[in-house]
Structures are given as structure tokens and as C-alpha cells.
Specification:
Shape: globular
CATH superfamily: Hypothetical Protein Pfu-838710-001
CATH topology: Hypothetical Protein Pfu-838710-001
CATH architecture: Beta Barrel
CATH class: Mainly Beta
Radius of gyration: 15 Å
Mean pLDDT: 94
Structural class: mainly beta
Oligomer: single chain
Low-confidence stretches: none
Number of helices: 2
Strand content: over 45%
Order of helices and strands: EEEEEHEEEEH
Length: 157
């Protein structure tokens, strides 16, 4: 079984922007609502994939990902998603031996900015960049699946 070990944090400040080594625009939608897994179709610039991820909260969960034709991914996004797609730009930033993925959300999820780090073990240590804010790994609301159904912009007010 493929397992993703990932920690998720809010971003405090723009200090990371000077260290971006690559960026890509993502549009991703979900093909099912509640259940034991989320099933996602994602377009990342000119590539696409289908992803199945265990619907559990925490730092480690099963994940499977398969490349699919871009045209089919766009068709799924247009007609099969059960909630509006999540749109974001992902930036990759290297810091002290790890790569951080920083997602800057658009649309109803703006101005949310989240940083994720993938680890090889749940107890792996890493250096915290000065732009890293509070950890939200255990807060379901910050998972992309949840943001599709209840966008960040609706939380306030």
C-alpha cells in the first residue's frame, strides 16, 4: 500500500516567495462526497491524474495516483465533480534538506495559503522556516476535499 506522510501548516508572511524554485497551477475536483476515500481528478498545467486517498485526518494515509489523459481530466472536471473544483497555484520551496509545497488558493478559497511537507516517517524531524505558521494537519477543514465543499471564504463572517 502506498502511504503519504504529510504535515500541513498555515503560512505566516511572504518570506518564502524569494525562494520559489518552481510553480504550477492546479485545478482539482472530487468525484465523490463522503465515504472511506476521496477520489480526485487534477489538472496540473499540462498533465492530469486521478488520485484516490483514504478519507482520514492526520499525517499518514493511503494514497494512490494514476496519470490520465488531459482531455479526459478536463471532461471529468466539467461534468462529474460533486462540488466546485479547487483552484490553486503550488510553489515548491527548498528549505534545509526538505521541499515544501506552498499552495496559494484562488476563488472562494482565497486568501488561504497552506504549506505542506512530505516526510519519510511520521516522527521525522525538520527545520521550521520562519514563514511557517500554525500546524493544521489534524484540522479537516484545511484538506482540499473539505475546501471544495466548504470554501475558506465562507468560514469568515
Amino acid at each position: 500500500m502506498a502511504t503519504e506522510i504529510e504535515r500541513k501548516f498555515l503560512v505566516a508572511g511572504d518570506g518564502w516567495r524569494d525562494h520559489v524554485r518552481a510553480s504550477a497551477r492546479f485545478e482539482q475536483g472530487y468525484l465523490c462526497g463522503e465515504g472511506p476515500a476521496s477520489v480526485r481528478v487534477r489538472v496540473e498545467d499540462t498533465r492530469a491524474n486521478l488520485n484516490v486517498k483514504a478519507a482520514v485526518i492526520g499525517t499518514a494515509r493511503a494514497e494512490y495516483e494514476y496519470p490520465i489523459p488531459l482531455t479526459e481530466a478536463r471532461e471529468m472536471l466539467a461534468s462529474l465533480c460533486v462540488a466546485p473544483p479547487v483552484i490553486k497555484t503550488r510553489h515548491w520551496v527548498d528549505h534545509d534538506g526538505h521541499t515544501w509545497e506552498i499552495d496559494v488558493f484562488e476563488g472562494e478559497n482565497a486568501p488561504l495559503v497552506v504549506a505542506e511537507i512530505e516526510l519519510s516517517a511520521a516522527d521525522e524531524t525538520f527545520a521550521r522556516p520562519d514563514w511557517l505558521g500554525d500546524e493544521v494537519s489534524d484540522d479537516r477543514r484545511y484538506y482540499n476535499h473539505a475546501l471544495s465543499f466548504e470554501p475558506y471564504g465562507r468560514w469568515r463572517g
